[in-house]
Target: Glycosyltransferase 7
Amino acid sequence: MVSPEQSQNQNFSMAKHSARSKTTSFFSDTLLFAGGALVAFLVVWALWSLFSTTPSPTPSFSSTSFSERKSAGLESAVVSPSQSCAVGASGFDMVHDPTDPNFYDDRKLSYSIEAPPIKNWDEKRRDWLKQHPSFAAGVENRILLVTGSQATPCKNPIGDYLLLKFFKNKVDYCRRHGIDIFYNNVLLQPKMFSFWAKTPTVKAAMLAHPEAEWIWWVDSDAAFTDMDFKLPLDRYKAHNLVIHGWPKLIYEKKSWTSINAGVFLIRNCQWAMEFIDVWASMGPQDPGYDKWGEILSTTFKDKIFPESDDQSGLIYLLLKEKEKWGNKIYVEGEYYFEGYWMEIVGRLDNVTERYMEIEKRVRRLRRRHAEKVSESNIPVWEEYLKDAGFGREGWRRPFITHFTGCQPCSGDHNKMYSGQTCFDAMQKALTFADNQVLRNYGFMHPDLLDPSTVNPVPFDYPS
Amino acid sequence: MVSPEQSQNQNFSMAKHSARSKTTSFFSDTLLFAGGALVAFLVVWALWSLFSTTPSPTPSFSSTSFSERKSAGLESAVVSPSQSCAVGASGFDMVHDPTDPNFYDDRKLSYSIEAPPIKNWDEKRRDWLKQHPSFAAGVENRILLVTGSQATPCKNPIGDYLLLKFFKNKVDYCRRHGIDIFYNNVLLQPKMFSFWAKTPTVKAAMLAHPEAEWIWWVDSDAAFTDMDFKLPLDRYKAHNLVIHGWPKLIYEKKSWTSINAGVFLIRNCQWAMEFIDVWASMGPQDPGYDKWGEILSTTFKDKIFPESDDQSGLIYLLLKEKEKWGNKIYVEGEYYFEGYWMEIVGRLDNVTERYMEIEKRVRRLRRRHAEKVSESNIPVWEEYLKDAGFGREGWRRPFITHFTGCQPCSGDHNKMYSGQTCFDAMQKALTFADNQVLRNYGFMHPDLLDPSTVNPVPFDYPS
Model:
């Protein structure tokens, strides 16, 4: 039993407790609420950190206003705050290179073709990408186009003029598709002249561009003639090297022209590093050069000159080492991954007409647009190009037209055709391609053989 | 006073209350906690939505596997899922162009220099960017470099060879800095020949590239000789046109060479559209051409030929219409926005040595790295170049070296110097620049006058 005093005490303590409870309750309620909020923030932050592939923006450099700095010169202006975090203008963070070691810090690393191939390149590239996360998104589709020509003026008086136009053509294609391009004009290995110059260049490019998944070598005498077409990279996901060719000619005929080594797509990976090493070892700088000349001439009965060449060499590796090399080499024959100009140029007028007929019918394709969103028309075109056909019987724009045998730089074209024929054909193909580019700038060449003349393209052309 | 029963009841009810309190308390505590968490999530989501500038990624196209499609051909392969959302590989969404109207759908839009300038360009560009948000981030620093040369082969046998090298040089600079480049090689207005060809090209480029804030015209005979330096765009935020020049020579001497119109940076805006229209109206296609020749010859006493030229024209507008034009034109004289080759090339060996001395001392600058993160070294270099000086008394790498007077294409160089002098100077500057590029590919030219030879760069060079 509780005494009145105890009861009263209880009342009082209840009241006190009640009052204290209210206050305590308020504080503890607040703490609980805040605790919930804090835990929520922590969870969100943890999840964001886990899934975020881009670093948080660098805090801007503290900066004084320009006028204060003007007298101090431009030193601080060169890294202005708005430029300090390059993610944005170009889409990538180009200003940060963390000091933690990566493969570049290994003194054994060599860019040179004669050095043994790098080891664990796949892992090293992956580590570099982790270190530079802004390049990680979309890496599987990132391409670096590599091309080039000799260091000295062309022997053909018209040679450098043509090379300049071929280079512009490639730059146009790359700009439309957000692809980087590197033009090399010096032999990285002095003995690896002519077509042999590719592999040293490609190896150096692979090491200089760990952000690129693919290196796309395109000869100086090859032009893009379908400015919209994109490499179907998904097709090649199980392969490391793509070349244009015909399996029948490789395996049955064993022809040295069963593939073309003037255009290839090679994955920036360990397999490729090793392949390049073996492929390059057939070259003039190697003691085995003469021996390779004999082997390749014996293997390919239609080879036209006795010296070892990179094209026969490639086919040889494909044929003889199927397990190691052949199985990873995709011989693409379903579209003009590169196309022989002789079976293409004569059809360009017809192709132009067929495409114009489609444009006349489809409003969307006539619509003007920024060059940067040209890719948006690809699926629209595909609807109408379903039956166009990719090869010589078809009328699709050929992807790449390759002037094999024309030798624009030296002028030592194949005697099968005249220099004028080659020249006219090159002008035609380049102007045909240029029309696809200039369209977005409001102009077109009315005559494919006259690169000097353009007319404004009227609104809603060609309706 | 409380009776024992009441007390007991109280005890019981307290106990019950206590028990019920515990349960209720637990639920209400949980609710409070969850409430705090919910409020926190809502706040974070609201803030993120407010500040987020990029849309959520486009859902990928539904696709059948390649093998199912292979027999159907390549049509669907050309827009493979991994490529369908182009944000990633290049950083921008190039595959979507919404059908809602934008300025391109106005039939009055003309790319041609002779058409009246577009109206409300600032608003139209803004609307286009809203429609294509992946280009909005970083737009204020986005540049398109425009250059070009004639449609026909150069008269100088060595001309196209040089133009090709100058073009490669620009492509190298642009690749390092994520800048797009457009090379034009046809007169968009047939009468606007030679230096007049710039304005039609720039106008067309502005309309074709609404994603670019700046168009940077760089003459075909100008080379980047500091591959690291970036335009200090913050400096120009209150201006719409940047040229290299000396105010004294403009305002006091009224010299026609007080500025150089071969390199300019123009904002992609309404002011610029109107300026270009006025500037171009001084050209050969305009009825006022002869009158302008007289006016400009009278205004600029040192003008060397009677015909209207774009450089004098620009200065004229700057001088005579200060309110409208002059105030928005930034005359940059504090660094080689473009520099006269004669005062530069002779110093390049010394510049090379000074930079090498710095590299010998600073480990970080010797560190190999991917070309794409070359910009990360800029602040490190700036520490050591504080007192280098930007002009002819200094030893900083000149930003752009302009071979004014050398006329590599026609060969009609200023008689002040020989063709050989020009040629050697161009080779030297281009090789000097190439060394900065090739370094990231593992090679260097030992002799600036010999573009044909490179040596591998050893690890930790030049320590």
Remarks:
- Chain A touches chain B through 137 residues (CB under 8 Å).
